[in-house]
Design goal:
Order of helices and strands: EHEHEHEEHEEEEEHEEEEEHH
Largest sheet: 5 strands, parallel
Distance between the termini: 55 Å
CATH superfamily of the largest domain: Response regulator
CATH class of the largest domain: Alpha Beta
Strand content: 25-35%
Helix content: 25-40%
Number of strands: 15
Structural class: alpha/beta
Radius of gyration: 24 Å
Length: 251
C-alpha cells in the first residue's frame, strides 16, 4: 500500500485532493493509498522526524510558509515530492529543491494524474534498485548493487553483501522475481549477482572480497553465457571447466 502525506492548511482542499488521488489509483488498479493530512508545516516536520522513510509520496503546499516548506522539502529524501502553490508557477519553479512535480492550485485532474503516474514510475524504478529484507525485527532496504549473492538453507535465505549477512524466510523463486536481471541462479542453493563477479574459474564464481560460490553443472552453460554477455565478450570455444577444476585441485 502507498503511504501519502498531504500538508496544506486548506482542509476542504485536502479532502478534494485525497478523493482525486484515490480515484486515479483505483482507475489504474493500483493499491489504495493510506493518506495522512497535516495543516501545519510543524506537524509535517514532526512526522518526518519520527517516521522517516515510511512514505512514498508527499504533497507539500508552499503558500503558508514558503521558506519553511522548502526546508522541509530538502528533508524528504526517500519519497516523491510534489509542490503545491496558488501562486504563479513562474515564481517558484526554480527553487533548488529536488522534486517530482509542481502543481498550481486549484489542481487540474489531468495534471494530478500525470504527477501520480510519474511518482508510480519512479517508485517502480526504485524498487528495482533495492531489495527489502523483511523479518520479525523489522524491514531493511539493501541497495541491489551491494548484494553479492543469496544462499538457500532449507526455508531460510541468506543475503550476502561485502560487509554483512541478512537472513530471512522465503523462496528462491520469489527472490529472483524481486531482483534485477543481473541476478541469476547458478546452483540449487545459490542466486548470484553477475555484476559483482570478479572472475569465473572452473565451476566457481569469485568475488573481489574473496568469497566463492559454486556453479552446478545444470546451470553452468547458461550462467557462463550470461556472464560473457554481461562483459561484452564472445565465447572462445569449448567450455573447459573440467580441466580448470583439475588444475585447481593439483595446486
Amino acid at each position: 500500500m502507498w503511504n501519502i502525506w498531504v500538508c496544506d492548511d486548506d482542509i476542504a482542499f485536502q479532502g478534494e485532493l485525497k478523493q482525486q488521488v484515490q480515484d486515479i489509483m483505483k482507475a489504474e488498479q493500483t493499491w489504495m493509498p493510506g493518506i495522512v493530512s497535516f495543516c501545519e508545516a510543524d506537524e509535517l516536520e514532526r512526522q518526518i522526524r519520527e517516521h522517516c522513510g515510511e512514505t512514498n509520496l508527499v504533497f507539500l503546499d508552499l503558500t503558508q510558509d514558503q521558506r519553511k516548506s522548502l526546508l522541509l522539502g530538502k528533508q524528504i529524501l526517500d519519497a516523491q515530492l510534489v509542490f503545491l502553490s496558488a501562486e504563479d508557477k513562474r515564481c517558484w519553479e526554480f527553487y533548488d529543491v529536488e522534486h517530482l512535480y509542481a502543481l498550481r492550485k486549484p489542481v487540474g485532474k489531468d495534471h494530478l494524474r500525470r504527477a501520480v503516474e510519474r511518482a508510480a514510475k519512479h517508485l517502480r524504478d526504485k524498487r528495482v534498485t533495492e531489495f527489502a529484507v523483511v523479518t520479525k525485527k523489522g524491514i531493511e532496504r539493501i541497495p541491489m548493487d551491494q548484494i553479492l549473492y543469496f544462499e538457500k538453507e532449507k526455508r531460510k535465505v541468506h543475503l550476502y553483501t561485502p560487509t554483512q549477512r541478512c537472513t530471512f524466510y522465503g523462496k528462491f523463486s520469489d527472490v529472483i522475481s524481486r531482483t534485477s536481471p543481473c541476478f541469476m541462479r547458478c546452483h540449487n542453493s545459490y542466486v548470484v549477482n553477475i555484476a559483482q563477479m570478479r572472475k569465473l574459474i572452473g565451476r566457481k564464481f569469485f568475488f573481489a572480497n574473496g568469497m566463492v560460490v559454486p556453479i552446478s553443472q545444470t546451470y553452468y552453460r547458461e550462467i557462463r553465457q550470461a556472464y560473457l554477455s554481461y562483459l561484452g565478450c564472445q565465447d572462445e570455444g569449448p567450455q573447459d571447466y573440467v580441466m580448470i577444476e583439475k588444475d585447481d585441485m593439483e595446486e
